[in-house]
Design a protein that fits this description.
Helices cover 23% and strands 30% of the residues. The protein has eight helices and 21 strands. It is elongated, with a radius of gyration of 23 Å.
């Protein structure tokens, strides 16, 4: 993996070579998506020596655009991240590294972070536990505090043709994509009985919705579920879906045309919604001993209102702390965690001065 990301040309982003990992950081942000970059921006503006480590695998990469974020509605996710990296690069105290964090260990005893603000150099020492992050490249970096923003991975049902259309006309979030596909023929592929909620929600964007039960037995649906589906005009189709069908229209490209059931029946559809199984990337948090909370959508780090986990000095933001953290929430969570962490470091250092 290379040491730097490509960002829009800007003379303020020029850096002489790769980051100096031998010099301890005050904060390491693991994950460079919306939450991680937001945290890094706040920390850079607070003059905290910070390292952002990112493997470059954002959850929303399959989508050609992101929606519902004020001033960024319709922007491609890759462009959003490139702009974010360029903004963060304006701050001299923040380094960005394209690499993967594969392990984190806690270091007992004081950890020292060196800060260089122009012509003034100072040293801040805290008695709190520090951390060492091991990277896939074999290098290590240390810091006084961590912000984990490793997100989650969407695991799609193993259905032929489904993954290739994900983010295009196979979708999971109507708030993210519903407006763009409004009034088309929708299908909803059930992944559990909870998919009833998805089938009902998408009727706000189309009056033509077919709910494919797939591997869900109709007896798993409650009477209230069935009454609501009927009231919303949703057609319920039992039977397992065997294949997602597509057609190549030449200049306009490939498009979804429907689904084929295991019995050979074909149902014409233009859009297919489904709920992937979310797989939280919480391995690093678990190695640190962070408490996780089980939810219907996976296990996520327990955090307080600032994003602080059960491990002192470790914060979480974005999908590392919850399934429903979309881009606007992730940006907010990263900002909140960084501001709280900065204040905590400041008070820790002041208290250390008082007692020494």
């Amino acid at each position: 993996m290379t040491d730097t990301f490509e960002t829009p040309a800007d003379p303020r982003t020029d850096r002489p070579g790769p980051p100096d990992l031998a010099r301890p950081y005050e904060v390491i942000v693991v994950g460079g998506g919306a939450a991680g970059l937001s945290a890094a921006l706040v920390l850079g503006r607070a003059r905290r020596r910070t390292l952002v480590v990112d493997a470059g695998e954002p959850r929303n990469a399959p989508s050609p655009h992101m929606q519902g974020y004020l001033t960024r509605d319709g922007m491609p996710p890759a462009e959003f991240l490139a702009l974010g990296r360029a903004e963060v690069a304006h701050y001299d105290d923040v380094d960005q590294l394209k690499d993967r964090a594969v392990d984190i260990t806690r270091n007992d005893g004081p950890t020292t972070g060196t800060r260089n603000h122009g012509a003034t150099t100072g040293t801040a020492t805290a008695t709190a536990t520090g951390f060492t992050v091991t990277l896939e490249s074999g290098r290590t970096a240390s810091a006084r505090r961590l912000i984990i923003t490793t997100g989650l991975k969407d695991q799609l049902p193993p259905l032929p043709g489904l993954a290739a259309r994900f983010g295009k006309d196979v979708l999971h979030c109507p708030y993210c994509h519903g407006w763009e596909v409004r009034d088309r023929a929708f299908g909803v592929l059930a992944t559990s009985a909870l998919s009833v909620h998805q089938a009902l929600m998408v009727t706000q964007w189309s009056p033509d919705v077919t709910f494919f039960l797939h591997t869900v037995d109709e007896t798993e649906l409650s009477d209230q579920d069935l009454r609501r589906l009927a009231a919303a005009g949703v057609k319920v189709v039992p039977g397992e879906v065997a294949e997602v069908l597509t057609a190549d229209d030449g200049p306009t490209g490939v498009r979804l045309t429907g689904v084929r059931l295991a019995d050979g029946t074909v149902h014409d559809r233009e859009v297919l919604f489904t709920a992937p199984r979310p797989v939280p990337r919480t391995g690093l948090l678990e190695r640190l001993g962070a408490r996780l909370t089980e939810t219907p959508f996976g296990a996520y780090a327990e955090v307080d209102p600032t994003g602080l986990t059960s491990v002192p000095g470790v914060y979480a933001a974005g999908n590392a702390m919850g399934f429903g953290e979309q881009v606007p929430h992730a940006v907010s969570g990263g900002y909140r965690a960084a501001a709280a962490l900065n204040g905590e470091l400041l008070m820790t250092d002041l208290d250390t001065k008082i007692t020494t």
